[in-house]
Amino acid sequence: MALTGYYKTFTRPRTHRPLSMLKYDPVVRKKVLFLEQKRGGSR
């Protein structure tokens, strides 16, 4: 949510609700909220 361009990748079962977690962002040097987004696929 800091919109710094830093991202983390995780795998999870597709049946669970969308993932959101607080993790450390080294760009802003503090914990920020990471929200799940759809993967950008090439068509």
TrEMBL record:
What Pfam families does this protein's entry cite? Ribosomal_L33 (PF00471)
Q: Which UniProt keywords apply?
A: Mitochondrion, Ribonucleoprotein, Ribosomal protein
Places the protein is found = Mitochondrion
For molecular function, the Gene Ontology terms on record are: structural constituent of ribosome
Which residues constitute the signal peptide according to the record? none
InterPro entries assigned to the protein according to its UniProt record, in alphabetical order: Mitoribosomal_protein_bL33 (IPR052008), Ribosomal_bL33 (IPR001705), Ribosomal_bL33_sf (IPR038584), Ribosomal_zn-bd (IPR011332)
Under the heading SUPFAM superfamilies, the entry gives: Zn-binding ribosomal proteins
Q: Which GO terms describe its biological process?
A: translation
Q: Which GO terms describe its cellular component?
A: mitochondrion; ribonucleoprotein complex; ribosome
Gene3D superfamilies for this protein: Ribosomal protein L33
The answer to keyword Ion transport applying to this record is: no
Q: Which domain of life is it from?
A: Eukaryota
Protein family: Belongs to the bacterial ribosomal protein bL33 family.
Supply the name of the protein: Large ribosomal subunit protein bL33m
